[in-house]
Amino acid sequence: MLKFAPILLAIVYGLVMYRFSAWRTARTLDEQSTELADPELKKLIDQMAGALELPRIRVHIYEIDPVNGLAASDGRIFITRGFYRKYANGEVSKEELASVIAHELGHVALGHSRRRMIDFSGQNALRTALAMVLSRFLPGIGVWIANTLTTLLAARLSRGDEYEADEYAAALLTKAGIGTAPQKTLFTKLEALTSGRAGVMPAWLMSHPKTDERIKAIEKLENKWGIA
Q1: Buried b / exposed e across 88-102, counting CB within 10 Å, b at 16+?
Q2: How far apart are CA 166 and CA 103, in angstroms?
Q3: pLDDT at 215
């Protein structure tokens, strides 16, 4: 029994760190966010709420600079201040920002945000636990294998989630009368905002699918639904 103690400790450590990360993330969002009050965006958000038969959809501004949208594990939707600033400066349209909100709603509705953390603390805990286990059987290369497996698994799961959230958003935007065009134009803009990083990293190591692949997936849905 004692020989399995390090493995059990590694598993417990991973679970504790995952829980701590969830608590820390929720607290950070509470402390650094305020509810969105933009009247133009609110009209589009209300359209999506109506399409979902919900009384309202609460969207918050997360006070950080990176351009991103987030879905918390408790179901809250966040747009970063950096992303909102792009909209305020006219670099992103209100419809395009609405498509981000629809995408994040997809993560919530499909259960993605409950399976993975907004930050990577949970992933790091898993990597540490796996490294401890593998190092007992494969000294010297156990840590490398753990890092590789964790990165590949996280990337693959994340890409699958992104495609599913894109499809959910496309359906919601269509039903709300906003349409799928803002999704596709935003994908192209985000490619530029990330400084061409998608063209450097191998697709199988990316947490998000490539821009052209996401656009093609949306166009397949349009053809399937008979949208011109």
Answers
A1: eeeebbbbbbbbbbb
A2: 6
A3: 92
Amino acid at 17: M
The residue type of 138 is L
Longest CA–CA span in the chain (Å) reads 65
Percent of the chain past pLDDT 70, that is, above it, reads 61
Higher pLDDT: 201 or 1? It is 1
Cβ atoms < 10 Å from Cβ of 32: 14
**pLDDT (0 to 100) of residue 226:** 86
Neighbours of 87 (CB within 10 A): 19
pLDDT band at 27 (very low <50, low <70, confident <90, very high): confident
Q: Which tens digit of pLDDT belongs to each residue from 45-66?
A: 999 999 999 999 999 999 998 8
**Checking phi first, is residue 177 left (phi over 0); if not, alpha (psi -120 to 50) or beta?**
left
Which DSSP letter does residue 117 get? Answer: -
- Give domain limits for the chain: 2-225
Amino acid occupying residue 95: E
Q: Under a CB-based contact definition with an 8 Å cutoff, are residues 77 and 58 in contact?
A: yes
Q: How many Cβ atoms from other residues are within 10 Å of residue 157's Cβ?
A: 14
Contact assessment for residue 100 and residue 69, using Cβ atoms and an 8 Å cutoff: yes
Higher pLDDT, 92 or 199: 92
